[in-house]
Automatic annotation (TrEMBL):
All residue ranges annotated as the MD-2-related lipid-recognition domain in the record: 24-157
Taxonomic lineage: Eukaryota, Metazoa, Ecdysozoa, Arthropoda, Hexapoda
InterPro entries named among the record's database cross-references: Ig_E-set, ML_dom, NPC2-like
Keywords: Secreted, Signal
Keyword field contains Secreted: yes
Biological process, per Gene Ontology: sterol transport
GO CC annotation: extracellular region
The organism of origin for this protein: Sipha flava (yellow sugarcane aphid)
Signal peptide as annotated in the record: 1-21
Protein name as annotated: Ecdysteroid-regulated 16 kDa protein-like isoform X1
Amino acid sequence: MFDKIIFMSFLLIILLHKSKSTTVYKCGSKNKEVLNNTLVMFENCTISRCPLKKNSTMHIEIKFKPDFDVKDLITEVYGIVLNIPIPLLGVDKKNVCTNIIEEDGTKKNCPLQKGSTYIYKDDIYIIETYPKFKIDVHWSLKDPISRNVITCFEVPAKIID
């Protein structure tokens, strides 16, 4: 019995270490309410404020399930600095239909079906001209025609050299 408890504890520790999901917050939540229904993974972001290294590429994965049929899909990504939204160049308003896969790894393109689970994968370049500072990144996936939001989260970050 004791051996099973040790084995299960060891297995749980390994699984928690491997998952490395990033803690993200509901868009617009005043008291930083954690978002639990969307799995988000930023590469090398396991701390409370994600380091975004200038002149480098960062991998992101977002697992989501749309509440409505989606014909097309774009990002809305901006940094919030002193309560002012600043679009992140090369990422904001980007069409991402070609970056979608199904849960089983099958490549998927738009349209997306209501109730199905998908994963958005992308590599984001952090341009060198961004100044070094702390920033809250607002990230949403939207239908560009209806402007309906499929998923939305905010993540604390800092731009570093």
